[in-house]
Amino acid sequence: xxxxxxxxxxxxxxxxxxxxxxxxxxxxxxxxxxxxxxxxxxxxxxxxxxxxxxxxxxxxxxxxxxxxxxxxxxxxxxxxxxxxxxxxxxxxxxxxxxxxxxxxxxxxxxxxxxxxxxxxxxxxxxxxxxxxxxxxxxxxxxxxxxxxxxxxxxxxxxxxxxxxxxxxxxxxxxxxxxxxxxxxxxxxxxxxxxxxxxxx
Length: 200
Prior knowledge:
Elements: H1 8-11, E1 21-22, E2 25-26, H2 28-41, H3 51-70, H4 78-88, H5 92-115, H6 121-131, H7 142-150, H8 155-162, H9 166-194
Antiparallel strand pairs: 1-2
């Protein structure tokens, strides 16, 4: 049996598909590791325009990690962090998680559209932005993100950067993507169930 060709997803430190979920609760440390790997994916888009997206995601990752590090045992899951902040009426990490998840959703929707179509990345990301993040952004922020969406590389160049074997890339991307979509849904459903993200 031939070895699986190495791809970006094969080599990443943590895949969303491997993040532990117990009783509907998501492991904080491993979620953050997977999120950091996703941020590194934007490096492959090769445009400085995406730096604003990366900075936003990294900032939100830091908010969550800073909270977790105050008590790693109590804050071992994302849900525990949000529930504790609701009691304390201190929502820094909650805001970070909500906005990070919105960014993850944008990425998931864009890549799902792209892998299941022949669209160029710029089209998939623009449509995904209009479907997800745009409604939360101010009129000042929207043009910055729209510019980033349009600055995507050509489809063929992006997939070539993910790996030499397109079929292997597609197979591993779909596994990673399914894990990402599952986690985004769990977090979004959790926020909606208790109105934790209301007004944020």
